Amino acid sequence: xxxxxxxxxxxxxxxxxxxxxxxxxxxxxxxxxxxxxxxxxxxxxxxxxxxxxxxxxxxxxxxxxxxxxxxxxxxxxxxxxxxxxxxxxxxxxxxxxxxxxxxxxxxxxxxxxxxxxxxxxxxxxxxxxxxxxxxxxxxxxxxxxxxxxxxxxxxxxxxxxxxxxxxxxxxxxxxxxxxxxxxxxxxxxxxxxxxxxxxxxxxxxxxxxxxxxxxxxxxxxxxxxxxxxxxxxxxxxxxxxxxxxxxxxxxxxxxxxxxxxxxxxxxxxxxxxxxxxxxxxxxxxxxxxxxxxxxxxxxxxxxxxxxxxxxxxxxxxxxxxxxxxxxxxxxxxxxxxxxxxxxxxxxxxxxxxxxxxxxxxxxxxxxxx
Length: 369
Ligand code: TXA
Ligand code: MG
Known about the structure:
Blueprint: E1 4-7, H1 11-22, E2 27-29, E3 36-40, H2 44-54, E4 63-65, H3 72-75, H4 81-90, E5 95-100, H5 107-110, E6 115-119, H6 124-133, E7 137-138, H7 153-160, E8 166-169, E9 180-183, E10 190-193, H8 199-206, E11 210-211, H9 213-223, E12 251-256, H10 266-281, E13 286-291, E14 307-313, H11 318-334, E15 339-343, H12 351-361, E16 366-368
Parallel strand pairs: 1-8, 2-8, 4-6, 5-9, 10-11, 12-15, 12-16, 13-14, 13-15
Antiparallel strand pairs: 2-3, 3-7, 4-7, 5-6, 9-10
Helix pairs in contact: 1-6, 9-12
Residues 140-141, 149 line the site of magnesium ion.
């Protein structure tokens, strides 16, 4: 299949994308979080094509994107008051809510669940495309299954060119990690996937919010207390959270100082320097993921052609780190890195979402100093 590639600041391109969606085709488009791969959410064959293009297991449900808040009532059996409050506070924006689905939402879109994930993105091109298409748009992240989510149109092209009808290029995305997912099917809302909208931001609107217990296990990993391996056998409520996502081809390990998990201490940088030197000696192409402040700690390796230092952003600038994270993991693959060490990023606001993604990418390999 020939994949159309168009900039989305061109109104003809948005119209073409909307036509393709209406006819059951697939369009990758920018959102404020990551690029999505869209198809008509009420057309089971469009959903089936999304799973096929991504190589995604079909029990992993899709998020339905809408362009008008009131459409939530068309898709959800009931919209509890706390859902209303979150919609008013955060839509359009990087928040996905889980509600009981109406029968019109096909099992092919929800992976057979009786609930549906709904989100109203704030990216103007996404909104305009959904509005013009006049259909609800099922869209997972537009990567091949197992690759990092795409944060630029060229990431999408790398993974899906030839497999889908069109890619709308809106430049690099603003946030860089996927939306926060909150389950509202029970009395106390529960975060199934952390993101830009933090637990504190949600609690400011609706009071108590819980974390899926499998996420708490991840948080503890960062504190340095390694989880009981049996905890990994627990099933997260968002089916997608149980797959080994975003894993680069090289072996990625996170190095952290349990005495000061929020800081990149000299003990951390010297441990990474030592481990990276050993890997280079063993002939490995080696990368270090670092913050701006600590990147000079690796100067002594800079001359080695097999060494790559990838700076994600400054310690207190989680936004920049989030924007660069997935691109950095793709770069590690492009450079054919065998071994990758990452500093452990600060877990303020966005930081817990960043560390959630990084720990998964590392397959839970955390080295404590
Ligand atoms: O920011 C985002 O949310 C991006 C953009 C494109 O909107 N989309 C995205 O979709 O990240 P995806 O498919 O990569 O991740 C969707 C996650 C998966 O972990 C899936 O298991 C979960 O949402 N999910 C979808 N429907 C669900 C449901 N009914 N119950 C629980 N989890 C659900
Ligand atoms: Mg995804």
